[in-house]
Amino acid sequence: MLANAVAFLYPSCMAAWRLAGLLLVASLTSPVVGQRAALVRAVNDAEARGVRTGVAVCDEDAEVLYRHRAGELFAPASNMKLLTAAAALHGLGQTYKFVTEFAVEAGSLVVKASGDPNWIADTSDDPAKVFGALAAALRQRGVTSLREVRLDHGTFTGPSRPATWPRDQFYAYYCAPTGPFVLQQGTFVVGISASGGRNARAALLAPQAGYAISGSIREVASSKGATYGAVDEGGSIRVRGKFYKKSPRVQIKTSVNSPSRWYRDALMHHLRAGGVSMSDGARPVDLGVVHKHQSALAAALTRILEDSSNFDAEQCMRVLGAESLGDGSLDGGRRAVRAAIGAIVGRVPDGVVVADGSGLSKENRITPGLLVVTMYQLSVKGLAVPLCEHLPVAGKTGTLRKRFLGSDLVGRVRAKTGWIRGASSLSGLVAGPDGRPRWFSILMNYDRGRGGLNKDLKKIQERIVAAVAGMSAG
Q1: Other CB atoms closer than 10 Å to residue 319's CB: what's the count?
Q2: Residue 474 has pLDDT above 80, yes or no
Q3: Of 18, 125, 171, 330, which is most buried with the most CB atoms under 10 A?
């Protein structure tokens, strides 16, 4: 473990930090001192704006290169996803597969929940393909009629969203519900295009559940005030609004009300299309498991870290709870994440709060030091590469695609971004002049009532990372 980790995780242990500080100062070269001064200026610029800023940096030799408020608690925004991903890698393993089983019992189809988050259209786990393969497997066993579909939720019980999420935003895709059976990341997708007539065309694109669309979206001659939306009405979709007649085709994504209902209805829709009907008179046969579908944790980790998917973070947290604690509820998931992080770093610092797995909750509290030590310890355990493979790359992918542009850090930084009202963050690793990694965490908190700060804070974060990257090896 980090020789200096005590200073990062438990700042009250000052004797250990003083010794570590003496060792660090003795090894600083002139380039290190110069870059450290640039880093300090950047941190001071942030704090002069009323932004409390925590920074922790270490290299792969476990040397603490810089710390400022590293042991203080911050709301991390989406940097919380780094802890969730680390916990999933440690607790489930990098080769983990979600396995969903379909069995025929007494003439009924029973589906055992795995909490698989990967059922997304136009992927290898497209529900249409999976359910089509299931229909084919049933026909091969001579089953063309079933009595009913039963969904076995297992331990995936309780609320679908954390209690600390903003209830007035539950309709939004980033507040999508979790559960034992979820398609399309807890959302439905509607395509809208101009028709040249009175109303625009609207079609349900995914998940295909056979639902009708009601309401209308009126075509208008001006783009001003052209807004539109779709609502899940439980078995049908209602659309409304105005659509600019010269606008290209668009897709809108909205949270579903009941993930399990969508799953059941989509399953039955595709079974019927595949030649398997529902009938009370179906033969009460027992065939056991007739089909299994497996998908990779790695796909979900990419969406968690590269796309910053709240849904996937919460869903994988619940799966971790189900696998490690036998509790797939949100509370079980939170406890499982905390336990896994404790196993990685030795002990979770006092005051740390795991309110959710995604960072959307403003109640989360973690420290920059905890993030850095977690990432470093994953490297010790051989899990840093799997984590880094899923992180966005500066100037190239995901939420870092438009960051660090015009600098020599393009392609050299892999990090997780984060923002909610009152919190901005960036944590990950950057390659130094020798190509070796430096792990860093930057957490910034400010008055939630202040707006327009994040653009400037992003620039300061990039200055900090540039300074860290420029430090020569001591």
Answers
A1: 27
A2: no
A3: 330
What pLDDT is attached to residue 30? 46
- Residue (of 231, 239, 243) closest to 187 by Cα position: 231
| DSSP assignments along 303-358, one per residue | HHHTS--HHHHHHHHHHHHHHHHS--SHHHHHHHHHHHHHHHHSSPPTT-B---SS
DSSP character for 290?
A: E
pTM value is 0.93
Q: Which residues are 236's β-sheet partners?
A: 212
pLDDT tens readout for residues 12-21: 543 333 323 3
Question: Which has the closest alpha carbon to 282: 49, 104, 90?
Answer: 104
**What sections of 225-309 are H helices per DSSP?**
259-273, 297-305
Give all domains of the chain, ordered by start, each with its CATH number: 5-93+298-470 (3.40.710.10), 97-296 (no CATH)
Q: Return d(Cα 131, Cα 92) in angstroms, integer.
A: 26
pLDDT reading at 227 higher than 90: yes
- Cα-based angle 94, 99, 103 (whole degrees, multiple of 5): 170
Averaged pLDDT, 289-308: 98
pLDDT tens for each residue of 371-418: 999 999 999 999 989 999 999 999 999 999 999 999 999 999 999 999
Residue environment code for 260-298, b if the CB has 16+ CB neighbours within 10 A, otherwise e = bbbbbbbbbbbbeebebeeeeebeeeeeeebbebebbbb
Q: How far is CA 400 from CA 46, 58, 211, 417, in A?
A: 21, 22, 37, 7
